[in-house]
Design brief:
The protein is α+β, with helices and mostly antiparallel strands. The protein has 6 helices and 7 strands. It has a single domain (45-266), classed as Muramoyl-pentapeptide Carboxypeptidase, domain 2, CATH 3.30.1380.10. The protein has helices at 2-24, 44-47, 80-95, 109-120, 128-131, 217-231, and strands at residues 41-43, 52-53, 77-79, 98-104, 157-164, 235-237, 244-247. The protein has a 5-stranded mixed β-sheet with strand order 2-4-5-7-6, covered by helices on one side.
Amino acid sequence: MTGMRTVLRALATAAAALLVATAVSPAPAQARPEPKAPEGFVALRSVDPTIIQEMRYTTAHTFLGERVDGYRQPVCVLTRPAARALHLAQKRLLRQGYSLKVYDCYRPQRAVDHFVRWAKDLDDHAMKGEFYPLVDKSRLFDDGYIAEKSGHSRGSTVDLTLVRLPALPTRPYRPGEPLAPCFAPKGERFPDNSVDMGTGYDCFDTLSHTDDPRIRGAQRANRQFLKRTLTDVGFVNLPEEWWHFTHRPELFPDTYFDFPVDRRSVAGH
């Protein structure tokens, strides 16, 4: 009988200890809600549904060879003034038989961080043959191709090109397919339904400089047409990238946002 009381006391002590431990255990951590875009951001499609969107960073056809962090849906998000300016440019272009096509718009900080991690991995050369054939990967930071902050994260910068209408579809990239240099003749590099700008998008090469003297003829004329059209509605071109334009004055000149590229980020705006 004594042995039975000892066993019961031991069980009671263990149960009490379990109750105490349960009472003081922290509650399961709640998933932190994703940040939302502040007022002032919109989905470009809500301002101008005619502008073609080929959001590259939601696909594997990037210099990383994979979808970029933070790109949940293939939607262009911009500050409202930048989107309205693109709408003005698009109206003029449509009358001339052209359309804008955006490759990238607002870019979350987590995407920029993904770029930085990739650039520091000097063993990953999966997409070198297309996007940086002549640049040593160890030079990407020093040469200005990759940085820890991007104006895209402020929401008024866009990467874009021109498409002659009617627009033909661009075939999807097939991971693992043979790569051609981004500065190869248009018929040899990855097919794009845009006009010939002399290089493909995100080409890490000095040939991407908007006014590089080696770019001549129709290619130069196309770049100048794009630049002139966007300058007229308040955009400023980055001289090192023919596709890169920032609307001025920026609505958020000093803030680098990190909400995901997703329609829900701007829902209700």
